[in-house]
Amino acid sequence: xxxxxxxxxxxxxxxxxxxxxxxxxxxxxxxxxxxxxxxxxxxxxxxxxxxxxxxxxxxxxxxxxxxxxxxxxxxxxxxxxxxxxxxxxxxxxxxxxxxxxxxxxxxxxxxxxxxxxxxxxxxxxxxxxxxxxxxxxx
Length: 138
Known about the structure:
Layout: H1 5-8, E1 9-11, H2 16-19, E2 36-41, E3 44-50, E4 54-64, E5 67-74, E6 93-100, E7 110-114, E8 117-123
Antiparallel strand pairs: 1-6, 2-3, 3-8, 4-5, 5-6, 7-8
């Protein structure tokens, strides 16, 4: 029986102290939660994360134990001699963490970033993938 994506990849909530910061918190400690779609097939999981404005050089993807963390920073393209009069993007940073199932192969994650969408492919370990068993006639 195949597990659902919800069983395979669980969203890890932020610690209580990070969930809601007071307005006076420094901008570098706050982060926006990117929207993520998760798709599963018999070979693994595909995760699509919306990270508009994040360049490849400013993207950090890491696995620590069973936790997959995605972090990215946005650097607004503004002339250095000008001061912004009005800014809508107050938190130029994204952060999201997931708990990986033990059936997923964290050593072989593939990542691609195109047009502000991060595509992560997380394969299942060989023993967790379905296989066909041939039957011999005796």
